[in-house]
Amino acid sequence: MIAKRIIPCLDVKDGQVVKGTNFVGLRNVGDPVELATFYSESGADELVFLDITATHEQRDTVINMVERTAENVFIPFTVGGGVRTIFDVTRLLKAGADKVSVNSAAIKNPDLIRKASDRFGAQCVVVAIDAKKTAEGKWTCVVNGGRIDTGIDAIEWAKEAERLGAGEILLTSVDTDGVKDGFDLALTKAVAGAVKIPVIASGGCGKPEHFAEVLKETGASAALAASIFHDGTFTIREVKDICSKEGVNIREA
Asked: Is 251 a domain residue?
């Protein structure tokens, strides 16, 4: 059985890791490379960087961050945010990212997934899906920080992303994000059950038991969180210990 992964997420703005609520009241948390190095040494299995400003003007800043991370961190890391073209994907991978995450651009131009997968391999392509519940057992994809509902069925989009060549799905529940009452188990189970590629659960984690719950009950291959790690509320070691006690086959820190 493949071991489950614990992944810290770092939101990056103007070259610094920030945190806030729904991108409001953002404050600096620290240097992304220093934090990435700390998490790597603390037992994180992978890292995800999201460029939340997602502007072309900041792309050089992000490229520099990726290069510095690749020099200092020796676990896989994914970079996303503002990735619109195959050129963006190429630059990030050449700078040292192991994977590139695409979201809104893939919905607007699904062929971007195929082109990136054909050129670099499916293992480099992560499709991020932000999903919002519309009815019992139904979720649609939203973009622009959850403000625009595309009307696209999230489960069908996950299946299409896999067909086009995605190697992984980063699935965030808009409904549970920031609430800290736990991951959206129904959504995660539905998507993980619809595809054969790994699914990373995101949105809603408030304590280590939430990791164990989503990894045991949904078929997710990994779980991601930000605040509980950045705030120092829990360590990666504590999360992994509780997951192990709950019977999750977890990678050792």
From this structure: no
